[in-house]
Write a structure and sequence with these properties.
Blueprint lengths: L1 H10 L2 H9 L1 H5 L8 E7 L6 H7 L5 H8 L8 H5 L2 H6 L4 H17 L2 E8 L11 H19 L2 E9 L4 H13 L5 E7 L11 H9 L5 E4 L5 H11 L3 E4 L7 H9 L3 E4 L1 H6 L11 H7 L3 E3 L11 H12 L3 H13 L5 H14 L2
Parallel strand pairs: 1-2, 2-3, 3-4, 5-6, 6-7, 7-8
């Protein structure tokens, strides 16, 4: 990736990456499981392990968990895929439940050797038992601080509005992101079914975010084609796109993404489950990488997709013959586009370079 190589030269890391081409065996001696990883696209309410589900509601059997929380290998579409989050959200309606679910995700991240993660959720979905939106965000924010202390994993939280929300709901969400800006709350997003709802209800919220320096990402180019990405870029002006895989269908869009340093948060397994692609072999992740666009590999929903970053990396290795070179490049790009400070980014880069030697 040309843009990445320029960055690596400036960072003094290009020689390290070039060494992979002639000494791949050194990287392969370390298992994918042991490689340090960065995850930018991770839904909190789509990532409940059976352990925490059973802890919150002991009546839920492994069979019910499999049926209600985990999507099949092929869903009808994105809307069908998203329905698996309903049961999880029902278990995230008190401060303690939110704490347990958040700490459970930290346990999963630690096992996956994730060194930095940004988890996202829509706070307005967690008011069913009387919590206020502020109390919801406070609970998750405190749990992230606790999880980071216990595991050493650096993490942030992105607050999501949803495509079917009203303008007022979007504004309420983005103002929460701004209110908690100097805590573990690091950004703003729009999620849910892009094919079913237009952008008009959310333009003011993104204008507010940009005016108040709240970092933004936005789901697009998943359930709809490249025009969805164009529409999102023109109306919301995010620095990252959640998924964005269908950008590959428009060469001018790819050039725009590269020129404007827009990062794509790629989630291969999820995209096959939502029926965008019939198999990983048809997924454009490898082709996107070779265009030079900034991108990273992510899980999306660890439970709904029954996956981990180790699994996603293994799939990329098996299908496209990726080695440590590609994974390191994507992780460094993720760090460059992470919603965190430069001091943290430097530490993460050092950890990644050391971890992929």
């Amino acid at each position: 990736m040309q843009n990445l190589h320029i960055k690596l030269i400036k960072a003094g890391l290009f020689t390290l990456l070039a060494g992979f081409a002639v000494n791949v065996s050194n990287a392969q001696n370390r298992t994918i499981a042991a490689w340090p990883k960065v995850e930018l696209h991770l839904h909190l309410d789509c990532s409940l392990s059976y352990k925490v589900v059973h802890e919150i509601d002991s009546s839920i059997s492994p069979e019910k968990y499999q049926h209600d929380f985990i999507a099949p290998g092929r869903c009808t579409d994105l809307a069908d895929y998203i329905t698996r989050a309903v049961q999880a959200i029902a278990l995230m309606q008190t401060k303690e439940q939110l704490r347990l679910v958040t700490l459970d995700l930290f346990d999963q991240l630690q096992k996956d050797h994730v060194i930095y993660a940004e988890m996202r959720f829509a706070p307005l979905q967690h008011l069913q038992k009387g919590l206020t939106p502020t109390e919801v965000v406070e609970a998750v924010n405190a749990a992230v601080a606790e999880g980071s202390r216990k595991t050493g994993i650096r993490a942030g939280v992105i607050l999501c509005t949803l495509r079917h929300y009203s303008e007022e709901q979007s504004m309420e969400t983005v103002k929460l992101a701004q209110q908690f800006r100097n805590t573990h709350i690091v950004g703003f997003d729009i999620a849910a079914d892009e094919a079913g709802f237009p952008v008009k209800n959310h333009i003011k919220a993104f204008q507010y975010a940009n005016a108040h320096q709240v970092p933004c990402t936005a789901h697009a180019g998943e359930a709809k084609g490249p025009q969805s990405v164009w529409e999102t870029l023109e109306n919301f002006h995010p620095s990252r796109i959640g998924h964005g895989v269908r950008s590959i269908e428009d060469s001018s869009l790819i050039q725009f993404l590269k020129k404007n340093h827009i990062h794509l948060e790629i989630c291969p397994t999820s995209n096959t489950q939502t029926n965008i692609y019939s198999s990983i072999a048809e997924h454009p992740a490898d082709r996107l990488y070779h265009t030079g666009v900034s991108m990273s590999i992510n899980t999306d929903g660890r439970t709904i997709s029954n996956t981990s970053l180790q699994h996603e990396y293994s799939v990329m290795e098996k299908t496209f013959h990726w080695t440590g070179q590609q994974f390191l490049a994507c992780n460094l790009e993720a760090v460059d586009h992470a919603f965190t400070d430069e001091k943290t980014k430097k530490k993460l880069r050092d950890m990644l370079v050391k971890g992929y030697r």
